[in-house]
Amino acid sequence: MTVCFTTYNLLDFTGRDDRTDHLRQAVAEARPDVLAVQEIVADTAAGAARLLHQLADSLGLLCAVDARGTTALASGQHRYHVGLLWRPGITPVPGAWRAFQGGDFHHALARLQLDIGAHEPVTFASYHADPFRPARRFDEAHRVVAALTRPPGPAAIGGDFNSISADPTAHGDYYDPDPYAHQEWYDDLLYQVEWNDEPDAPHHADRRAAQALRRGGLLDAAAEFDAPWQPTTGHWPVADPFGPRRIDMVRTTRHLVPALAGYRVLRTPAALNASDHLPVSVDLEPALIHDASAAAATRSRRPAPAARSYGPTTNSVGPHARIAGPLIQTGSIGDIRLP
After folding, report:
1. CA 306 to chain centre
2. pLDDT tens, residue by residue, 236-250
3. pLDDT value at position 327?
4. Any residues with CB less than 8 A from the CB of 43 and at least 6 apart, and which?
5. 3-state secondary structure the chain
6. How far apart are CA 209 and CA 196, in angstroms?
């Protein structure tokens, strides 16, 4: 039996929005065993914890790490929080919860080891990257790698990375096409493209954070699985000026590469109406998760991309994009409890 890990940016989730029913329907359609969520919005960590518990209860999922009621929530600095939920029958490993927040991240990272029936526990994480500063995303990527790979072991992180991937296809070009290279300049591109002192120079996606994640051993599950390219944003054009992009991802350590059994982006009416991000899911086969010694010999299925080229790529973004059809497609607040 496979285990489904889903990541979902809920878009300003307060539990009081008209979109809440759509959100719950979309999660029900994704059918996650483990769910990473971003954009739980509340003024305080305690308020965000209450929201996460309410969401978990409405979905039939759990988010209490231990008998004391510690909530699997990492509190962001800007009212935006991240969390983890899981189905009954999956068990948190005692002492294996940590919230990374404060100075580490613009938003936050939540990390928890879970017993999913594999030979050893698997670490799962939820992450929300800095939306405005490419250099900060690059810096955060190093912290993400350390959080997921030290100590070594099987791990998967789902999140809104706020930038496209740098992982390659089987042919060696980038799995994610550059959505910005042929766009006329507009101000919000400042947050997504490489800096150039020459304002009229061609602009290209800043992939440094993604390169750091990959080089640090966190591999893009979509590229590893060789799934047809699908955007996770861009279906709300009024709120998102960048066009179709894939910035919501699941990345895994090498231990999980042999266990990848499926990848999909949920593109149903409920998901399209619920958020400006779509849920992304991977299926894992617990029996095929490698231990640390086996993973040391496991490398990505993909060659490293050749020197950067800004010519045509295998994939394209636009009206003729190759997109799969509709799919059910240290400062730490480690003890957030309900009052």
Report:
1. 25
2. 988 788 999 999 999
3. 37
4. 79
5. CCEEEEEEEEEEECCCCCCHHHHHHHHHHHCCCEEEEEEEECCCHHHHHHHHHHHHHHHCCECECCCCCCECEECCCCCEEEEEEECCCCEEEEEEEEEEEHHHCCCEEEEEEEECCCCCCEEEEEEECCCCCHHHHHHHHHHHHHHHHCCCCCEEEEEECCCCCCCECCCCCECCCCCCCCCCCCHHHHHCECCCCCCCCCCCECCHHHHHHHHCCCEEHHHHHCCCCCCCECCCCCCCCCCCECCEEEEECHHHHHHEEEEEECCCHHHHHHCCCCCEEEEECHHHCCCHHHHHCCCCCCCCCCCCCCCCCCCCCCCCCCCCCCCCCCECCCCCCCC
6. 17
Query: Taking CA 237 as the corner, what is the angle to CA 55 and CA 246, rounded to the nearest 5 degrees?
Result: 65
**Whether the predicted model's global pTM rises above the 0.85 cut:** yes
CA 110 vs CA 13, 95, 152, 186, 234: distances in Å: 17, 14, 17, 34, 26
* Cα–Cα distance, 59 to 52 (Å, whole number): 11
Whether residue 337 is predicted with pLDDT greater than 80 in this model: the reply is no
Are the beta carbons of 39 and 128 closer than 8 angstroms? yes
52-55-57 Cα angle (round to 5) = 110
Least Cα distance to 256 among 156, 108, 115, 137 occurs for 156
The pair phi, psi for residue 286, each rounded to 5°, is -55, -35
